[in-house]
Write a structure and sequence with these properties.
Helix content: 25-40%
Bound molecules: nicotinamide-adenine-dinucleotide
Number of domains: 2
Largest sheet: 7 strands, parallel
CATH topology of the largest domain: Rossmann fold
Distance between the termini: 45 Å
Shape: globular
Radius of gyration: 23 Å
CATH class of the largest domain: Alpha Beta
CATH superfamily of the largest domain: NAD(P)-binding Rossmann-like Domain
Strand content: 15-25%
Strand order of the largest sheet: 3-2-1-4-5-8-12
């Protein structure tokens, strides 16, 4: 029997990466996520794509559109699922957003975490619980460290922090933002369940957790959003500190691989800072330069001479403790890797055929088909899931490599539209032969892009 993992926030950046990582290892994953990110941040925060990505694992991935504020729902879910581990990533994740939705923020971050802890304890005190905390639990206290101003970044000017901020740093008596405060509450509760009930819990205080699957918005997911602005040539608002503020970035894959190590030998009531550490730290100005060198596009930005409330001037995680407890764990993605990966996701770096193949494989369920219409020959193409090469072209092209250039194709916004305008027999029958039923398809490709 495969092991069972519950991942809350499984539609999010970290949750979807963790789900995929363990699905690849043969676990069964139950995802708990109501796509609240879309409610928090609007359509740009919609995480449906990530959920679709997981559909390729069939019934190994089971999704529950449940809100973690639903206490009774969680109690029964955990007692029925009987997980071997729980990874809790669901959150209101934005420092800046929290003040405008204080109840939602606290109820999700503090109470939602508490609901999970208590539901798990009632089921078993042996099951590991991995909680995503944040560097914002340290409030703005890191800003009190003596800093030096360099040409393009700030850095600590204090020997005690030469490797970054350790877990022993105070979380007390500083400005946190309401987000930081709700996360402190969750962090302390997770530690308490560990200490008091001897449960294998861990708080991972994240620096900047990032990767291509973040639905980056201005208020959360800074690196993803910054790269998106560069690629789309949109103006980026740079808030304060002359753009020299420093963050440490870690790829979501490296976060997932740490959880793997932790679950192999869990500890009780642990706390780790997790991020890119000093080696993957970068300022905003340096980030501009790096992305410009990758895309060849000048970064457009608007400097706002006011920093975000409680924003860190310089933050990077001291990884000494986490690495010493789990020596097999290593960062595999450098800053350049991370930037390139996110950039590729925004399309320009990947050949469209490769993307198409990946998206076909990742994005649709077994009853969905992609439909494209050729402007000249009225050609309909469809791919059933799991078949990496086009299964059948109805007329014209027999082989994938014979596809005409993408600019010759018109995107069909809604595949059903096709049936209004074309011979139903000709289109629907072959689809039925493949055992599928037709369903709506929206596919986003940059049609101007050349192979
Ligand atoms: N991304 C970062 O830079 C970063 C840094 C430090 C800490 N963290 C922490 O890591 C965790 C994961 O962050 P992320 O970047 O993947 O965030 P994300 O917003 O991409 O994912 C969070 C997911 O939780 C879901 N969610 C939110 N509220 C919910 C609710 N009430 N019920 C059910 N689902 C709900 C959202 O729909 C979303 O899919 C969070 O706890 C966050 O605070 C993230």
């Amino acid at each position: 029997m495969s092991k069972i993992l519950i991942v809350t926030g499984s539609m999010g950046l970290i949750g979807s990466e963790v789900s995929e990582y363990f699905l690849e290892k043969g676990w069964t994953v139950h995802g708990v996520d109501n796509n609240q990110r879309e409610i928090f941040f609007g359509t740009q925060g919609d995480n449906t794509k990530n959920k679709n990505r997981l559909s390729k694992y069939g019934n190994k991935y089971i999704h529950h559109y449940m809100d973690i504020r639903n206490r009774t729902g969680l109690l029964s879910l955990i007692s029925v699922i009987k997980p071997d581990a729980v990874v809790h990533t669901a959150a209101q994740p934005s420092h800046d957003k929290a003040a405008s939705i204080p109840y939602d923020d606290f109820d999700t971050n503090a109470v939602g975490t508490f609901n999970l802890l208590e539901s798990l304890r009632r089921y078993s005190t042996e099951v590991p619980f991995v909680h995503f905390s944040t560097s914002k639990v340290y409030g703005d206290a890191p800003n009190l460290i003596k800093m030096k101003e360099l040409d393009e970044r700030y850095d600590y000017d204090d020997e005690r922090y030469v490797n970054g901020i350790p877990e022993t740093f105070t979380i007390d008596q500083s400005l946190h933002s309401l987000f930081g405060a709700s996360k402190v509450s969750a962090d302390i509760s997770v530690q308490e369940y560990g200490r008091y009930f001897n449960m294998p819990t861990v708080c991972l205080r994240g620096g900047c957790l990032t990767g291509p699957n973040h639905a980056g918005v201005e208020l959360h997911g800074f690196l993803n959003y910054l790269i998106k602005c560069n690629v789309e040539e949109k103006e980026y608002n740079l808030f304060g500190y002359k753009g020299k503020q420093v963050r440490d970035n870690i790829h979501s894959y490296d976060v997932a691989s740490f959880i793997d190590e932790f679950l192999k030998s869990p500890r009780v009531a642990e706390v780790y800072n997790i991020g890119g550490g000093k080696e993957n730290s970068i300022s905003i100005l340096e980030s501009f330069k790096l992305i410009e060198s990758i895309t060849g596009k000048k970064m457009k930005y608007n400097y706002v001479d006011e920093s975000r409330v409680g924003d860190h001037i310089c933050y990077y995680s001291d990884l000494t403790k986490i690495k010493s407890h789990y020596p097999n764990w290593k960062l595999t993605k450098s800053t350049v890797d991370i930037f390139t990966d996110i950039y590729n996701h925004y399309n320009n770096g990947t050949k469209w055929k490769t993307r198409l193949q990946n998206d076909i494989y990742n994005g649709i369920s077994s009853y969905h088909f992609y439909v494209f219409l050729h402007k000249n020959v009225n050609l309909l193409i469809c791919w059933p899931l799991g078949i990496m090469r086009p299964f059948k072209f109805f007329r014209g092209f027999e082989d994938y490599d014979e596809l005409p250039p993408l600019r010759d194709w018109r995107r069909i916004q809604d595949g059903l539209e096709v049936f209004e305008r074309f011979d139903r027999e000709q289109t629907i029958r072959p689809l039925r032969l493949f055992g599928g039923r037709f369903s709506r398809v929206n596919y986003e490709l940059d049609l101007d892009e050349e192979e």
